[in-house]
Structures are given as structure tokens and as C-alpha cells.
Amino acid sequence: MRVLIHAPWPAEYTAELAAALGARDDIERLCLVVRRDFAYAEAAGCAVARCYPAARIKRGRLQKLTAHAVALARTAACIWRERPDVLHVQALHQPLLDWPLLVIARLRGARLVWTAHNSLPHESGRFDAALFRRIYRHVDAVIAHTRFTADTLVRELDVRNAKVHVIAHGPLTLGAAPAPARDQARRALGIADDTFMLLLFGRLRPYKGLDLLLAALDRLQDPYMHLVVAGEDAFGDATGQLQGRDDVSADLRRVDDESTARYFAAADLVVLPYRRIDQSGVLMLALTYRSAVLASDIGGLAESIDNERTGFLLDPVDAETLAARLADIKSRPDALADVRRQIAADEDGQRGWPTLAERTADVYRSAISRGGASSNTDQSRRP
């Protein structure tokens, strides 16, 4: 098979997947369409077409439009030149403008596979549902990372069930800085060895449940439990909530890779008390660092965590239940150690990239042989 992966955004994920796909005998040629500042070309180990401008260069509106028009022309030329059997779209840079690339690929004879990292973009506009219904109708197969996303696609966006394949998200190791030893990380953060450290990580938004976690700490009043909040305060709400608290430390900025590794190495438990979620990048990062996680039993989170085996689930999602769950987990250090060991085992097996690449290649073959009318087998549906 000749495969072209279009990925102007999810860089780490794409490189990890490409490296695993490229190691397969059934992939004759693999090429990635990426941004100019794509940092993982060597790790991906395949051909790379840097069609899109670098993300962090500031441009005026006219410059952005011009740069994007050039990028589309380059991408269209790449599709025509590569003549792929499969165009696998991880994302479109500007979906409203870029969907004609799918038509060009179809004209060139490619089957179309789309990875729905979310059923709709996080910050959806009013036309996105209609646009993505049209896109999903046009492609031959859709890969979702969770059954929750798959069910949302079928129920709310009219995607045919036979098109949808659930393939789990793999660990993201390429951008993860090496984790220091636990005691070293704690010394750097000023966390005592006998303190049970909780970590709430990532861009702070109301749905992520910081208020629930603070209310749970108020109920516990445990002097040996400390919360570290690390991530950008997206709406400016966190500063006021955290003011004057001795049981919380805050790093309200975009956290660099070295600091990220330090936080995860130091934490006893990563807490995700989300009120709503489809798929969590923070959870994937926590699993990459083999951290024990307590997450709300909602959305796709429950599919990435086997309760009491690869993590802990919170149900119902309220402050009282959260407080009780934190106290219980803190009292069972052996359970925490077992969870970390099982996460490591799963990375080498069910959630390892070779296994995920095999399932992805199965979707490619199905799309090629059946034109998208692929069977809904157990293997293609399981996470």
C-alpha cells in the first residue's frame, strides 16, 4: 500500500504512528504532509512533505491567507505526485477551506480515511456540524479513539456505523522529556517525601473541575495531601480560586517539557475530575509517564482506564465522592504501584504502537478492498 498521511497539527501522534506503520511489510511507501516546523521527521522514519507554514510565526491576515493558499497548492501537488492508495487525514488546517483536498485525492484514486480525534473541534463554530457531516459522508472510513467518540459520530453526525473503527490512542513518548527520579523531582518542587501529591495538569477551563477538587480538599482537611495545579489559566478563573490556600501550589503558565516531566515524576496521583470530555491529551500524557490517574467516569476517559487496574475512576462526579476516593487511594500505596506496573505492561501490548499500527493497516486494507463498506469486526471496534 502507498499511504499519504495529512497532519498539519497532531505532530507527535503522527510521528509515532508513522514509525510503527513504516516498519510493516505491507506499507510500500509512506509520506507525511506536515508543517515546516515538524520536529519529528527523523523519528517518523519516512518521507516528509513540509507543505504547511510553521505554526508559531506571526503573520498578518493577508499573509496568513497567502501562506495557506500556497500550502494548499503544495499539498494538492503532493497528493497528485504521490498517488496514494490511502489518504489518511489526521486533521485539516482550515476545514472550511481545505475539504477540496479530499476531492483531489479521490480523483487521484485514493481511498479516504479520517481520524476523528474529537467528533467536532473543541472550539466549534456554528457551521462545523454541517461541514463535518459532509466530510464524514465523503470519506471511506473513520477512526475514533474511543467508543464514546464513535457513538457520538453515529448518533449526532449521521456517520454510518460500518464506517467507524475504534483504535486506541497510543502513548506519546517523542515530546516527553525524560522523567527525573521521584525524590529529585520533589526536592525541586519543595514537596516533602511523606506528602501525598495530587496533580491537576493542563490548560485550565471550567469543565476540568478545579472547583470540585478544591472542595474535596476542604472536606478532607488532610495536612499530608497537597495539590499542584500546572497549566495556563485559560479564562482567568483559577487565580482567585487558589488565592490564600496553603494546600495548593500553582504554576499558571504554558508549562515547558522539562517542568512537565518533573510534575508527573513527583505526583502520587494525577486527578482529572472533568465534568465533560471526549478525549483527553492530559490523560495520554499521564499514561506516557506511567502515572496513576483518577479520572471522571465520563466520555472516553473510562475507555482508557480499567478501574483499579490501569487507573481509578470517579463516579458520580461530585466533591463528596471525590474526597472519599482520594482518601481511599491515598491509603493504598500498593494499589498505586500496581497501577503503574500495569500501565507499563499495556504500553508493550494492547496499547503499543505496533498493535495500533496493525489495526490501522487493517482499516486501510478494508477501505481499499470494499470502498468503505468495511465489516464491523471485534478487532476494529475494540479500543
Automatic annotation (TrEMBL):
Glycosyltransferase subfamily 4-like N-terminal domain: residues covered: 11-168
Entry annotated with the keyword Transferase: yes
Domain of life where this protein originates: Bacteria
InterPro entries, sorted: Glyco_trans_1 (IPR001296), Glyco_trans_4-like_N (IPR028098), Glycosyltransferase_grp1 (IPR050194)
One Pfam assignment: Glycos_transf_1
GO molecular function: glycoprotein 3-alpha-L-fucosyltransferase activity
Keywords: Glycosyltransferase, Transferase
EC number(s) stated in the UniProt entry for this protein: 2.4.1.214
Domain Glycosyl transferase family: 182-340
Enzyme class: transferase
PANTHER family in the record: SULFOQUINOVOSYL TRANSFERASE SQD2 (PTHR45947:SF3)
Protein name: Glycoprotein 3-alpha-L-fucosyltransferase
Organism the protein comes from: Salinisphaera shabanensis E1L3A
